[in-house]
Amino acid sequence: MAIIERPSDTPALAGTSGVVTPSSSYGYFRRPVESTGWKSWAFTVDHKKIGIMYGVSAMVFFFIGGFEALLIRLQLAQPDGTILSADKYNQMFTMHATTMVFLFVMPMAAAFANYMMPLQIGARDVAFPRLNALSFWTFIFGGIFINTSWFLGGAADGGWFMYAPNSSVPFSPTNGVDFWTLGLLMTGVASQVGAVNLIVTALNMRAPGMTLMRMPIFTWMALVVQFLLLFAIPIITVALFLLLFQRNFDATFFNVAEGADPLLWQHLFWLFGHPEVYILVLPSFGIISEVLPTFSRKPLFGYPFVVFSGAAIGLVGFGVWAHHMFAAGLGPISVAVFSVATMAIAVPTGVKIINWTLTMWGGKLWFSTAMLFAVGLIVQFTVGGLSGVTHAVAPSDTQQTDTYYIVAHFHYVIFGGAVLGLFAGIYYWWPKVFGKMLNETWGRWNFWLMIIGMNLTFGPMHIIGLQGQPRRMYVWTENRAGEGFFNLGFWNLVSTIGSFILGVGALLFLVNIWVSRKNPPAPADPWDARSLEWITQNPPKEHNFDRTPTIHALDEFFHRKYEDVGEDGQHDYKQVRTGEQVIAEEEANADAHIHLPSPSYWPIILSFGMLVVCYGVIYSFLLLAVGAAICILALFGWALEPPTADDSEFDPPSDGGQPSKELAHV
Amino acid sequence: MFTTGSKFLIGATVLATVSAIAYGVAQDGVMGTVGLASAAVALAFLAGVNIYVRDSNVWDDEISAVETAPAAARPPADSIWPMAFALGAVVVTVGLVTYQAVFIVGIILMLAAGAEWTAEAWAERASADATFNAEVRSRIANPLEFPLAAAIGIGIIVYAFSRIMLWLSKTNTVVFFSVMGAVILGVAFLLAYRPGIKSRAAFGTIAVGALALVAGGAAAGLDGEREIKVHETTEGVSEEGGDICASTEEFEADEKASQSVGATAAVAATITLTDAGELVFDVNGPVEEGTDSLTLPRSNPNNVLFVNESDEDRRLSLDLGTRVVEEDGADEEVPFLVCTALVEPDGEQNKTITIGAPSFAFPDGYSFFVPGVESARLELVVP
Amino acid sequence: MESASTVSTMSRRAKLRGPAARIALVAGLGALVAGCAQDAPQDTWDPAGPNAEMINDLDWIVFPIAGIVGLIVLTFVAIIVVKFRDRGQAIPEQTHGKPALEIGLTILPALILIGIAIPTVGTIMALNETDDTECIVNVTGQQWWWEVDYAQQDGCGGIPEPIVTSGQMVIPVGTPVLVRGTSRDVIHSWWIPRLNGKRDMVPGRVHTLRLEADEPGIYAGQCTEFCGLSHANMRMEVVALEPDDFEAWKAQQLAPYQAPAAGTLAATGEGTYVAQCARCHQVNGLEDADGAPVIARPDLQVYSGAAPNLSYFMTRNTFAGASWDLLTDECRADVWEAPPEEFGERYLEGVTADCLNSVDLREWLRNAPAKKPMYADAEKLEVTDGLVRGMPNLALSEDQIDELIAYLLERK
């Protein structure tokens, strides 16, 4: 009740206070600008750090998925096994596949794409750095979310392709399928957002002089993969939404009594699922297309053919989905069409194999561990690809589908194709990313044990599949195993032993990392490589290139080191500079002002909000509302935040000068 | 002598005391008297406090207080929020004695006005620079205010429109919609073609229109919706004991058969009503020779496609013996019939039938028939 | 460059051994492929009927081609890794490609694939031919067993009334049979490898498959579309009998009900059956105490709505989704491995008391869900509206089990 009794003769109140200088930050939510410690990882937008985090998480999931596989093999080593109950077994094979496909191979490929693509095109970061961080955090939270289902009532148990109506509530009553659905929706968001990011990066941020046909081949394959993701992820998103609503909100999309056709799920899933397998394998194709030329000392044979065949695989990959449904009762015309289309897609894949072998032909082959893995891919993928051609023959497929023959095929192409390629990439780029070399001897042991293990595990599966053992069975019986020493029981046992050898081989990789951690720093150009990412330090500085390089040719680094001094059509390559010299030259002409995007809280907060929403869908509407509120606030904060932090948000340097913008030493 | 505030409070105390005494004498019942007496005591207490602090006024002989009191430094800007808040309070009170909807509107208005008032007050304290304060406030609050206000505004308009459409009769809604559309088109046309129109006139017209819409919506909403009938289904009618499946009449369930699937792939059987008035069936692959009955597995969601090749609208019905329903607490056996909706000539319709009991459970078994066509009969065997 | 060549010198021996050894390894494994099981009952490379033979003939075109292509590629890679390893030669010619070679090597596989595609499409169309089938058998999959029924028809030598059985589909030798199948709940798949490829059985849809057996015998199969907990325990067999044996089988399946003789254990068993089993498992002709026919109504008890018909239970020799044998091992070998001429006779004997595998049957009757996983949680039936998802645990006493077995032994 205070009323100013304003006396009329009080002097005017003008000029009582000077203008207070406002601070530009509003007090709270100062941007995270730390360059060391956990905060520099949690809030980073640097593509290199994000790539490393993707790689480490993917490796963790690799071992989790591998452990699940070993349990499966232990159960199947003998008839009528009792290691896993039927319920646990069903959960185990569902989660093994989901983990390996969505939480290992895809993120590992994303790790390489994130780390290498900007470096290979001469950029300093991706087009949308905070979006990049969002992709990572959403993926990791999604992966953790799916795996918490083990402790919260049971994991999903419908197989990684989760056919309807088995996925509906009466047949899968636990929350496992809901965890699976929501987790995959989250990782789908991560992939979709990443796809947009990398497409814009590759198309818009190439260094001057780098036309599309001078782009390194790995970047090309990664670009094709991003386009595949862009169009395939929405399809699975739709399917997952239909399933989510069917299970949680009484929709009847897959309810046969209401007139639904269960084949709807199959079509939707495989329309995604087939491009998905090319998403899994094309990055590895890109990796070995870099590794083979480097270690053969020759350029990739038929670069335009490899590029176009990659694009062709991507495109035709959308037209062959029903080859997963040859036994599903589609009718002879559909079956014939898809059968022929599937054979057609073998052609561009064959082109690649030819190009790789011809790259090696006439070369000077150096069998480092990376090269071993690359050659291993060629051999193993050929086996897998040929068994694939036998499935393309639809009548044969009606005998082979849903048996161990198919399991053999896809493990050869995924393990022998995608995974070997990823390991090749790890060994090849390890010095670039971490600045140290991995031990070659341990690398060889790693490679050989994995190859032997892999062939012992998946080779016999061809036999047992053709002799009648279906897949996804928690037990097999003596009665169906045939007579003789080499009956199905024998091969199941061999397969189990092989899987353990494979497991040991994989563990040797970890041993290699441990043993190599105290190695001396790697040389600047350990492999005498050819492409642009090697014109940086090991590991690269935070801003990648001291100055944006100008590109004159494909294999730019090679052409700066070697000149052709031959005459009259003869070629004679002389080294005119070392790798160190080329790098030093770039450093000497460094740009004066380098602007980099600043770290941000909002991506991890938004991802966390999505995680809370997912838990809320399963458990409580209140939690969902809280999660949605977090998401909205995070989006709001993100929108208000400028891309670069203000100078005042950096700690003043101790010497009183300008705040340092030099961040990140890994 | 006495300050303004004290005068007011003393007067209120006296009024309360007198009313308490008067009420107590005149009326029965203790509640009113107690209430007024309590009010009197409370007001007396407040009056006492206020006399002591003398209204907390800053007197003109306390110069430092004059100069440093926040209220002396800078007068607050004009603001609509106190009035909006008060309006909200009034609407709440009115809503308490009229409609719940009004009450809720009042609560929302109070919350919104309260939030805005608070934000404004905080913004004014941020610094001494009024421009900067305004900028801070708008920077933070506008991204929330504008979308929310737009959502609310659009919501109100859409809701008002929907209430009007639900209140008018079915034909009149079409008329209203067409007229509204034409009017909007006309006004927009005028505005576009007469750029010289003052913005005031344009705004005025739009405001009048919006207000009319909202008022109309409120009125129609309060009056209630017209009678809306729920569409029948063939299942629904049969379950209520209606003999839709045995009849050739057209029921409402037959119009726009929204509950039936038009067609589906790989059906269990296709049953055709020929022009000769016979029911013939066709299945995947060759028909079993030497049988004129259709066999379907039991407890299975069988899809049966009905094709009508006759010249009339016909439905396919299935006689499934009897079933037990509970009527008035007792179990009664009633005939069990299911059917499709009426299908026009050359039309087809799928029906999903799940049959629990085997056909040998009933003496007559099961049979398909078409009401109105005597010769159309097909035996169904469920083993 | 220095460090690189150091690395290469150090492990040259390993390099040399390395890739060549790998090729050898893979080739060796290929050789092991020759080591296959004999007489695997579900061997896809051992066709016993014309449809499976068509597929096998196509396999014999495709697999060798794939094998040869594989060998060529592997050999090529082996030659390369040996011939072009780093022996200190100069930087090789930086060939960017030879378009003519590449186009040629693109066209060649395309031609091979066209060569495979033509017989493939032909076989697809041929396998789809079902017009010549003479007899139709309906199959309905359910979690986790198969119901087989024969509608009244002229085919199969004439079937006067519907026959319902489960787990073992009996067909006459040399007669093309059309399997018309669907499912009651989730997607299953009918696969008898020695007779034809598989066909998915989808609820709400009916799919057809042609089966024909050349010789008498039992042909084993399994459900090959993941269908839940006991997908591994959902098996079936096709039994092919010579035409006169098939007539005898039909007569068995249409024989009128024989009530057990009064005073025997089986007679008590009949009462136990009516009390405990008949609400789900139909036995044709069974009457209750008042003389009224007992009609099983599994649709009121089981979520998927049906249970196996046990009228002629002991004429088949597997039970519970063909997961366990009704015959002891010795008797089983007698029937399953009988030479074709004697097979029909032995099969038609059915299961006698001395040949009964009472161990598995008793375990099943004692506690079915413990033997075959059917319930994730038997307490939680809200999601299925209180209906069970397979045979529940009836908590039968040992005496009741004795009675039931005595009764069931007479179901022939």
Please tag this protein with its features.
heterotrimer, B: 383 residues, alpha+beta, Immunoglobulin-like, 4-stranded mixed β-sheet, 9 strands, 50% helix, C: 412 residues, 5-stranded mixed β-sheet, 3-stranded mixed β-sheet, 12 strands, 39% helix, elongated
Helix content of chain C: 25-40%
Low-pLDDT runs of 5+ residues of chain C are 1-16
Q: What overall form of chain A do the CA principal axes indicate?
A: globular
In order across it, which strands form the biggest sheet of chain C? 3-2-1-5-8
Evaluate the radius of gyration of chain C: 29 Å
User: How many separate domains of chain C?
Assistant: 2
Task: State the major sheet of chain C.
Answer: 5 strands, mixed
Mind explaining what this structure looks like?
The complex is a heterotrimer of chains A (666), B (383) and C (412). Chain A is mainly α. Chain A has one domain (46-596): Cytochrome C Oxidase, Chain A. Chain A has 18 helices and two strands. Chain A has helices at 38-42, 47-76, 86-121, 129-148, 176-204, 217-248, 263-296, 303-316, 332-360, 369-392, 394-400, 404-434, 440-466, 488-515, 556-561, 579-588, 602-619, 621-640; strands at 562-564, 573-575. In chain A, strand 1 (562-564) and strand 2 form a beta hairpin. Chain B is an alpha+beta fold. In chain B, the strands form two sheets. Chain B has a five-stranded mixed β-sheet with strand order 3-9-8-5-6. In chain B, strand 8 and strand 9 form a beta hairpin. In chain B, helix 7 crosses helix 8. The longest helix of chain B is centred in the middle third of the chain and has 38 residues, at 130-167. Chain C starts with a helix and ends with a helix. Residues 1-16 of chain C have low confidence and may be disordered. Chains in contact: A-B, A-C, B-C. At the A-C interface, helix 3, helix 8, helix 9, helix 10 and helix 11 of A face helix 1, helix 2, helix 3 and helix 4 of C.
Concise description?
With 383 residues, chain B is α+β, with helices and mostly antiparallel strands. Helix content of chain B is 50%, strand content 16%. Chain B is built from ten helices and nine strands.
